[in-house]
Description:
By secondary structure, the chain is an alpha/beta fold. The chain has helices spanning about 5-15, 30-50, 115-125, 145-155, 180-190, and strands at about 55-65, 90-100, 105-110, 130-135, 160-165. The protein has a 5-stranded mixed beta sheet, with helices on both faces.
Amino acid sequence: xxxxxxxxxxxxxxxxxxxxxxxxxxxxQDPEEVRQWLEDTYPALxxxxxxxxxxxxxxxxxxxxADHCSGYGYARKGQRVTMEVPDPHIGINMVSSIxxxxxxxxxxxxxxxxxxxxxxFLGRLLxxxxxxxxxxxxxxxxxxxxxxxxxxxxxxxxxxxxxLPRRAPERRTGCRTPNRRCERDSNTSCGSSPTFPIxxxxxxxxxxFSMPLLPQLDE
Length: 219
C-alpha cells in the first residue's frame, strides 16, 4: 500500500510521534559495563572522594571552530538563512576539566593531543588546586600512554585517573560528561562573535587556562 508523505506525517502526529534529533549511541557499547559504572563504580568513587577530601573532575577534548552553527535562523519563506564566517576555516583544539560544583578549567592547543600536551594540562590543573583530584577521562589512548602513566604515578598523592566505560559518554546511557556543555558554549561563542579574528588563531578569543564558575552540576 502506497501512502503520500503528508498522509504518513499526519498519522504519526495522531499517534503522538514528533520529529527529534537522534541521540548518538555506540552500536558496540556494553550496557552491562555502563550499568556497573553508574551503579557501582561512580558511587564508590564519590564516597572515596568525600573520605579523602578529593575533587572529582570530568575531562574531555574537543575542537573549537569559528564557523560553527548549532542553532536556527529566520528568513522569509523561500529565502535562505545565511551566516557570515571567515574565509579560512579557523579552529583549534581544547582540553577541559569541570568539577561537579561547576568549576571549569580549559587549555587550548594546536594540532592533536599528545601525552606531553596532556601532561602540561595536568600540571596546570594541579597548580590551580590544593587538594587531591580524581580525574575521570575517556578511553583516548593518550590518557593511557607510557609518559602519562609515569607522570601520574609520580604525582599519585595529588592525582588519580579513572576511565569511563568503553564507547561512552553519550546521552542515552546517562554517562554524558558535563564537558559537553562547555564544548557547545565554546563553539557557539566563537561562532557568534561579530569581531572574531580572521587572520589570528582561536586562542586570541580563548584564554590558555580559565576558571569561570558555572552553575552547579548534578552529581
